[in-house]
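Our consortium's second objective concerns turning raw sequence data into structural hypotheses that experimental partners can test. To show how far this objective has progressed, the report includes one record in full. It was chosen at random from the queue rather than selected for favorable results. The single chain below, 248 residues long, was entered without modification.
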Amino acid sequence: MAYLQENQPRGVPPLELTGERTLPDLPEENYWYRRHVAVYEWIAERCAGLRVADLACGEGYGSDLLARSAREVVGVDANPEAFEHARLRYRRGNLSFRRELVEEYDDPCDAVVFLQTIEHIHEPGRLLDQIASIAPVAYISTPNRLTLAPPGAEKSDNPWHLREYDAGQYRELLDAHFDEVEILGLFHARKLRAHELAIRLGWDRVHKALRITRPFYDRFIPAISAQDFTLRPANLNRALDFVAICRR
C-alpha cells in the first residue's frame, strides 16, 4: 500500500513514503516525523544567527525549521522529487535548496546538520572529513543499532541502511575526524514514556483482548509531539538515536 502526503499546498507535489526518509502530513508516519523534529528543534536553538547547511534534507521540513532562527539555511539533497517538493513548499528569504550529492557539497558555513543519514553512506569517513573541512561544528545523528535491530543482529532490516552503530562504534567513527565529540541519546518522554511502561505491564495483551488496537493507535500515533522525546547523555545503550555534537 502506497502512502502519499496529505493536504499539500497548491502546486506542491506530494511525496510517497518509501522508508528512505520520513515525511510530515502523514498520520501513519507521525511517530517518526516527530522523532526527527525533536532533534531539529534542539539544534535550531543552537544555530540562531548562523549560516547552516542541512545535508540530506529530504522533504525540507527540517531546513525550514532551522531557518526560523538561523541567519541562512541551505538544504541539500540529491533526490529530484524531494528537491522539487522542498523548493516549492518551503519559502523563506533566508532558505534555499540545492540538488546535490552531500559528498560534493563544499561551501563553508557556520554549522552542518546531518541527521539520520550517515548509516546510508558508502564511505562515511570521507564524508565526515568533508563536513569537518567546511564548518567548525556539526550535528550528526544516527539510530542506535541496539534498539533498532533485533538482539544480536548487525543491522535492522531497513534496506536503505548500509551499517548501523552502537554507541562505541559511533564514537570511534566520529573521533577519527573531529577534535571534540559529545554524544547525546534520544529517549521517549511524557506519553511515549508512559506507553513504554504500559507495555511492560501488559498493555499489548490488553488492547488485543479488548479488540481496540486499531482505534487506540489511530488516535495515539497522530497525537505524538516533539515534546514526547528528550535528549540526555546517560544510558546511551538504551537510546533510540544518537545525536553527536562534533567540533574540529
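The partners drew two points from this record. The longest strand covers residues 180-188. The beta strands are 51-55, 72-77, 95-99, 111-114, 137-143, 180-188, 229-232, 241-247. Both points have been shared with the crystallography group to help prioritize constructs.
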